[in-house]
């Protein structure tokens, strides 16, 4: 499946190290797209988004954000790419300094720097997740005001915004 954004777009919104490999960063974007964004959108709308992402102005506006007029009032919304940037950045913060080696996972450390503690990274992760949800709410308001342009969204109201809940639980052991 194609990605809806890339490292360059994420770096326009948030600070990403220039030297960080694009292909490695794509892993965080793919995870954000599959595990964070996709469960918050209904299946039909998400499928249309992936299929039509380069078709026409309506899908480009959704992906790139901008202004629109509704009931004689002008509104502004950030893009779905910005939403993905915040989701991907949250994942990047939490996992970026873990390196898989033939002897297991290591954390990069130098004489001139020290990794941010896990607790602080978790706080930053949740902060960026929360901000992504705020931006997504704006995008959803835009789409809800333009359901003629996005007909597959009309059936989303029952499931949209509700992440999948199952019985599988994970715990972080300190």
Walkthrough of the structure:
With 174 residues, this protein is mainly α. It has one domain (7-153). The chain is built from six helices and four strands; from the N terminus they run ααααββαββα. It has helices spanning 7-13, 22-37, 43-52, 56-64, 80-95, 118-144, and strands at residues 66-70, 73-77, 98-101, 104-107. It has a two-stranded antiparallel ribbon. β1 and β2 form a beta hairpin. α1 crosses α5 (80-95) and α5 (80-95) packs antiparallel against α6. The two termini are 35 Å apart. Mean pLDDT is 88; it is low at 163-167.
Secondary-structure blueprint:
Blueprint: H1 7-13, H2 22-37, H3 43-52, H4 56-64, E1 66-70, E2 73-77, H5 80-95, E3 98-101, E4 104-107, H6 118-144
Antiparallel strand pairs: 1-2, 3-4
Name a few traits of the molecule.
mainly alpha, DUF6712, 174 residues, two-stranded antiparallel sheet
The spatial strand order of the largest sheet comes to: 1-2
Compute the average pLDDT.
Answer: 88
Number of helices: 6
Structural class: mainly alpha
Shape field: elongated
| Biggest sheet statistics | 2 strands, antiparallel
Total E-strand runs: 4
Beta fraction: 5-15%
Radius of gyration: 18 Å
Brief characterization of the structure:
The chain is mainly alpha-helical and 174 residues long. It contains six helices and four strands, in the order H-H-H-H-E-E-H-E-E-H.
């Amino acid at each position: 499946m194609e990605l809806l954004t890339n490292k360059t777009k994420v770096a326009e919104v948030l600070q990403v190290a220039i030297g960080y490999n694009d292909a490695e960063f794509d892993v965080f974007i793919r995870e954000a797209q599959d595990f964070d964004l996709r469960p918050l959108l209904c299946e039909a709308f998400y499928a249309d988004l992936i299929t039509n992402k380069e078709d026409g102005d309506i899908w480009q506006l959704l992906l790139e954000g901008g202004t629109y007029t509704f009931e004689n009032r002008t509104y502004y919304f950030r893009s779905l790419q910005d939403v993905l940037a915040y989701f991907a950045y949250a994942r990047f913060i939490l996992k970026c300094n873990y390196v898989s080696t033939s002897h297991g996972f290591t954390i990069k450390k130098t004489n001139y720097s020290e990794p941010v503690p896990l607790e602080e990274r978790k706080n930053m992760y949740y902060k960026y997740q929360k901000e992504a949800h705020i931006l997504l709410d704006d995008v959803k308001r835009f789409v809800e005001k333009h359901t003629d342009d996005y007909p597959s969204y009309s059936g989303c109201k029952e499931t949209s915004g509700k992440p999948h809940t199952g019985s599988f639980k994970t715990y972080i052991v300190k």
